[in-house]
What does this fold into?
Amino acid sequence: MAIEAWYMDESDEDPRLPHHRHPKEFVSSDHLAGLGVLYWHLNPKDYENDEELQKIRQARGYNYMDLLDLCPEKVQNYEEKLKNFYTEHIHADEEIRYCLEGSGYFDVRDKDDDWIRIWVKAGDLIILPAGIYHRFTLDTNNYTKLMRLFVGEPVWTAYNRPQEDHPARKDYTKSLTEKVGVALEAH
It folds into this structure.
């Protein structure tokens, strides 16, 4: 099963709607990987015993994990929290989320500063690289249960845009330039 992702329209309508461009412009997992976004599809019903999840955690050093039920009934100040998640920001570290139930959208900026919407559903594990501009919102189902993974102690510090001088943003931007340079040299 592949992740679903597409370029977003510029509408100010409810962010929980899909926001497809017309005509629709889907984005491949290879395109996302070129931006540093990694993806796996795992078995969310057996995450406690999933050997593939354990291999990913071990290989990438994710030694801390917690679970987050995100819905109006379970989160204090739900609307405020959702608004904060939807504010464009970066992190100094990777953002790793594994959707165990429900669904939601991670939006990431591409190299041209356009929004790509990534629809995560049960079984989708996504890793956003440090320094990528992104945001999150639920879809119209208004529910998701996410596993959050971290290297070491959890850090949830978001740095709202603009952050062009932040070390993580500089490293991220440099990594994109180097990838482009390598591809050009191969021709």
